[in-house]
Amino acid sequence: MLFRNQDWEFDPALDPIINVLPEGFFAACFVLGFGLLIVALVVILRWGRRDARRHQ
């Protein structure tokens, strides 16, 4: 839905960086991004709860 064409995909024949970086690098990037998302959501949730308690 968001990606209507193939321009966003890496082609190993045209983009040699995909062959230089190991698969573990991409796995670590995914885990780090997911972890940061979870931390951000927890911070927002706590901030919202604290703000709601203050205005009761």
Structure write-up:
- It contains two helices and no strands.
- The chain has helices at residues 17-20, 23-54.
- The longest helix is centred in the C-terminal third of the chain and has 32 residues, at 23-54.
Keywords:
mainly alpha, single chain, 56 residues
How would you name the oligomeric state of the polypeptide chains in this document?
A: single chain
Distance between the termini: 42 Å
Average of the residue pLDDT scores: 87
Please describe the biggest sheet, giving its number of strands, its sense, and whether it closes into a barrel.
Answer: none
Secondary structure: helix percent: 55-70%
Structural class of the helices, strands and pairings? mainly alpha
Give the number of helices. 2
In terms of DSSP E residues, the strand content is under 5%
Principal-axis shape: elongated
Rg on CA atoms, Å? 19 Å
Order of helices and strands: HH
Q: How many E strands? A: 0
Which spans have pLDDT < 50 for at least 5 consecutive residues? none
Architecture blueprint of SSEs:
Layout: H1 17-20, H2 23-54
